[in-house]
Amino acid sequence: MGDGLGGTFSKSGAPQWSARLQPPVPRVNPDSTVTRGYSHRFAVDLLVTSRHGEDRTADAKELYDNAFLQVQLQECFELIKRKDEALKSQKREIDTLYSRIKKYLLMQDHLYKDFVKMERDHAKVVEDRTLAAKNANEALNVEQMKVKRLEALGQGLEKAASSDDLKARLVEHTKQNSLLEVNLIRMTRKYQTLEEQEKLLRRNYQSMEQEMSDMEVACLQRINQLKEWKRNASF
Q: Which of 37, 183, 198, 229 has its CB 3.0 to 4.6 Å from that of 46, i.e. a possible disulfide?
């Protein structure tokens, strides 16, 4: 059995309306007059008044028809009134949602500007870190060359002679070699620190990009819901 406009259909195909969807009906008094009606939709009594200058000798059918039209009009007016109130309430809610969406869009614009600025700053930091790493590598190569030359010199001095003067020079070169090794270790640590900072900046950039994407999807979904709501409210 399929549902109709609030009613159902029997096996024979005849509509069976619920009591709520039945039209309003006048209530006939024992003296054949009609002063009240009943609305099934709103479950209330309706007041029926006679027409000005109405002939009291009119037959019961005419009185009933007049009353029937009155209760129908009253119910129609009430339906229109409630519909208007519902539309006004929906309009207020739509206006509120529009205001909120406007704020969201302004916030999104502000966040996008911050994102662009952060992206530029990130690119500059990466460029600076890359240049610093390049310089550190060059300095490391220079220090390694110095160490090799000192090692070669030390080996030559050992082979040349074992005098006190040569031993003193060898000790001096050994000290210089130790200092160069310390500098090499410092440069290596500095390079590792710069590399870790670059990785941290990259993770922050990816996180901000994901947040912007999620916010844009949420705003588009909310706008589509409001459009659908507005289209349904207009019917």
A: 37
Residue 37 φ/ψ, nearest 5 degrees: -135, 175
The CA distances from residue 51 to 41, 48, 67, 154, in Å, are 25, 10, 10, 130
Grade residue 20 by pLDDT with cuts at 50, 70 and 90. Answer: low
CA-atom Rg of the chain in angstroms: 46
Residues 6+ apart with CB under 8 A from 181: 147
Mean pLDDT in residue range 35-63: 72
Amino acid at position 10, single letter: S
Nearest to 46 by CA among 69, 75, 85: 75
Answer yes or no: is pLDDT of 87 > 90: yes
pTM summary value: 0.39
Asked if 45 and 38 count as a contact pair (C-beta separation under 8 A), the reply is yes
Residue matched to tokens 């200058």? 53
d(CA 74, CA 233): 24
